[in-house]
Amino acid sequence: MNFSETEIWTFVLVIISFGIYIYIGYMNRVRDTRGFYVAGQGVPAIANGAATAADWMSAASFISMAGLISTMGYDGAVYLMGWTGGYVLLAMLLAPYLRKFGKYTVPDFIGDRYYSKTARTVAAIAAIFVSFTYVAGQMRGVGIVFSRFVGIPIEWGVIIGMAIVAFFSVIGGMKGITWTQVAQYGVLILAYLIPSIAIAMILTGIPIPQMAFTFSDITQRLGTLQMDLGFKEYVQPFQGRSQLDILFITIALMVGTAGLPHVIVRFYTVPTVRSARYSAGWALLFIALLYTTAPAIAVFARYNLLTTLSGAEIQPDGSFTINPVPADELRAEHPWITKWETPGLLRLGEDLNGDGGVTVAPGNAFADKAKGDQVVPGEKGNEKGNEVYIDADIIVLSTPEVANLPPMIIGLVAAGGLAAALSTASGLLLVISSSISHDIYYRLINPKADEKRRLLVGRVMILIAVIIAGIFGIFPPAFVGEVVAFAFGLAAASFFPAIILGIFDKRSNNYGAIAGILIGLIFTITYIVLERFGGVDFKTMLGPVYVSSLGIGTVGSILNFAVMFIVSRSTAAPPQEIQDLVESVRIPRGAGEASAAH
Asked: Measured on CA atoms in the order 63, 64, 65, 67, is the torsion positive or negative?
């Protein structure tokens, strides 16, 4: 079998990075539950910041963030604002207090704060549901990278990813996951920044992507090209969405971020509350490196793709001449086209308008899979006459090839995409495992279980979770970015109100928490399922007050807050020791005092 230089570099870099992850996981294997669930609470702040950034910046951030901005335009900015703002909300408003509480998991906090086994059970089930929804996108991202760059089917790519994650998660638990995530952050940020810097230099002569995006004429050039290709209606702000929907999507992403159990638990791994605050600051810096680069790479990627596929040539005055090139000639000149066509992530269709070349037109060029827009160019339903289909998930991954960067950089991007997906997947799998083995099995079913049995149950639960996550990765409900957005909506509707009121409202009680979480979660799940998969047209039914399934988590969160507030004040107040516990959590002193008082 003959391998291209790109494939060889990809194999080398992926194998080296996977070898590093396996070695780190093995060297950090644990033998007790404290190490398994919270890494022994001995992780330095800067390392925890890097691990938090890797845990939080999933395949959605690495693979889909720029893709969403690139394909959706202004609409895609809600993801950038929501996810970034949400992390700030988590770091400033919740993390230090949760660390001071001194437990292992989010259901631990819910169960003890609301003095209820039922509340703990509901929270554990919600954590499992949110995490499985989120992990589906990660495993799908792993499959996409393997499929394209290693040349194996998506299904086998998912299976390989499952095996790697299972190894360092099972033997190392949170300790192995944490130090593996530190390495994964290094890989993913280099893989994101190096091609971004190279492309910025090529297109604008400015080596800093953020500066190139802001101070060059690249956005003007892209706008001109899109106008020439008939994309005028697609570059208007918030095309097809109301301002209300945009607001609710942004809020759902923000409060969903602040309620994600796999991110929250990262702040339990540091020694003190002070360390939690410092690690939050480091994580914000590490996250900003990628998130401020995403809009730039989105513009660069769209510009290069449209220029290449449409046969556009730039004139001395900055205008474009569109010279459609036949599909076979495009494939011959750009081998990456065929390789992205093989897994069905890019399609060049038949010549609909008879001009002898490929026409890139509005409509299904940058399609929304979840709405059934996967129209093969040339088939019925392609009203705009477009002859190209581009999957949003390939925007970042294809950019180095489209820009003709060296094979080593292309291989590095593949390794970075895998690092982003695996880092978040491992954190999510630990949440699923801890919710079952610690919060349900140990705290509810068998409180007398010894360390050895608890550790065994935790490891078995990770293996089972990996298998289920792999199935979701092979049969995903939507594309990576959107699956993750649903998970944020579910977290917003379930955890955020219970955590925020649990910290700042002494009067919130067990009845309110249980009712609020259940109503918020059930409402949000029902709405999403009915709209996305049940064929219910809420947009027509609700008219100007319509909120899409991406933003309905905000409504679920509001319902949760309202129900929790009303029910708590309609029933008995929490015991005095619980009210004292809430007070102690907010006192700015050392870690551990809150749980000790309880």
From this structure: positive
Beta partners for residue 240, in sequence order:
none
Whole-angstrom Cα distance, residue 146 to residue 158?
8
**pLDDT tens column, 506-561:** 999 999 999 999 999 999 989 988 887 788 999 889 998 999 888 999 999 999 99
Return d(Cα 344, Cα 3) in angstroms, integer.
Answer: 21
Name the β-bridge partners of 390. 346, 366
CA of 135: how far to CAs of 47, 125, 130, 166, in Å? 23, 15, 9, 13
CA distance 311 to 114: 63
Tell me the pLDDT tens digit for each residue of 193-214. Answer: 999 999 999 999 999 999 998 8
| Token reading at 189 | 């940020």
pLDDT in tens, 353-383: 777 888 887 665 665 443 444 445 555 445 5
Query: Kind and range of the H or E element at 592?
Result: none
Find where tokens 């593996």 sit.
180
Q: Return the CATH fold of 5-300+405-597.
A: Sodium/glucose cotransporter (1.20.1730)
Rama region for 404: left / alpha / beta (φ>0; ψ in -120 to 50; rest): left
Count of Cβ atoms closer than 10 Å to residue 517 Cβ: 25
Q: How many residues does the chain have?
A: 598
Query: Which of 95-99, 333-337, 407-411, 575-579 bottoms out in mean pLDDT, i.e. has the lowest?
Result: 95-99
What is the distance between the alpha carbons of residues 298 and 314, in angstroms, rounded to a whole number?
A: 20
If we measure between CA atoms, which residue out of 156, 139, 113, 161 comes closest to residue 14? 161
Q: With 0-12 CB in 10 A as exposed, 13-18 as middle and 19+ as buried, what is 278?
A: middle
Q: What is the DSSP string of 55-123?
A: HHS-HIIIIIIHHHHHHHGGGGHHHHHHHHHHHHHIIIIIHHHHHHHT-SSHHHHHHHHTT-HHHHHHH
For the ranges 225-239, 247-261, 306-320, which has the lowest average pLDDT? Answer: 225-239
Burial of 518 (0-12, 13-18, 19+ CB in 10 A): middle
Q: Which amino acid is at 397?
A: L
Cβ atoms 370, 479 nearer than 8 A:
yes
- Tell me how far apart the alpha carbons of residues 296 and 478 are, in angstroms, rounded to a whole number: 25
On whether the CB atoms of residues 196 and 211 are closer than 8 A, the answer is no
Residues of the chain with CATH 1.20.1730.10: 5-300+405-597
Residues 6+ apart with CB under 8 A from 155: 143, 474
Tracing tokens 């998130």 back to the chain, one arrives at 291
Residue of 495 and 385 predicted with greater confidence: 495
Q: Within 10 Å of residue 119's Cβ, how many Cβ atoms?
A: 24
For residue 248, name the pLDDT band (cuts at 50, 70, 90). Answer: very high
Tokens of 345: 């992530």
pTM exceeding the 0.90 threshold for the entire prediction: no
419 has a pLDDT exceeding 70: yes
The amino acid at residue 117 is K
- Angle value at C-alpha 555, between 554 and 557, nearest 5 degrees: 65
pLDDT of residue 238: 55
pLDDT for res 531: 87
Using CB atoms within 10 Å of the CB of residue 419, give its burial: 0 to 12 exposed, 13 to 18 middle, 19+ buried.
Answer: buried
